[in-house]
Amino acid sequence: MIADDSSTPILIAGVDEVGRGALFGPVVAAAVILSENSMTQLTRAGVKDSKKLTPGVRSRLALEIKAIAIDYKIGWASVREIDRFNILQATLLAMKRAIFKLNPQPELCLIDGNQKIPQLFIPQQTIIKGDSTSLVIAAASIVAKVWRDELITRLSEKYPQYDLKQNKGYGTAKHRQAIQQYGVTSQHRQSFSCCQLSLPLN
């Protein structure tokens, strides 16, 4: 939330995604609206780009963000949607879904990256490396990362051979080797070239 020219605060949502480069699982986005007071508090707490935080710190900060945000919401696009639309369009869809769930609706969205969300109908501004330069985008990056990591950890119990608890669905050497050995699951992105080696397990 910042003031416009008339000193009236406007609601700003930070939006970021996680899982775009993974081989397994949905792409997940978070949208977060913060007040000026909560932004100050979260700056002191150490909120920054989720990739620069340890899992334990991310989990702690995600709880703090969710506790003091004006609102936050998660949106995602399924593996089927990723394979159908491509990963970029699925990512933008996940972001739009997160934004549309917000209550109240923001008056401006700050989007991490350089791609605007089609048919958003809310003013938006893209920021390259926004998770490193915008606190509200960084907060969204943390919320999205923790939510997706928890989801993949739960799915790892169903698919133990892929080392998902460690790789969170990304294409590590162990994960790629498991795909070659066991094939892919219904949660693997079959439009990705390295997931086209074998027929699905289910």
Automatic annotation (TrEMBL):
Keywords: Cytoplasm, Endonuclease, Hydrolase, Manganese, Metal-binding, Nuclease. Its main location: cytoplasm. A divalent metal cation binds at D16, E17, D112. Manganese or magnesium. Binds 1 divalent metal ion per monomer in the absence of substrate. May bind a second metal ion after substrate binding. Residues 10-202 form the RNase H type-2 domain. It is found in: Cytoplasm. It comes from the Bacteria. Its cofactor is Mg(2+); Mn(2+). It catalyses: Endonucleolytic cleavage to 5'-phosphomonoester. Endonuclease that specifically degrades the RNA of RNA-DNA hybrids. Belongs to the RNase HII family. This is Ribonuclease HII. The gene is rnhB.
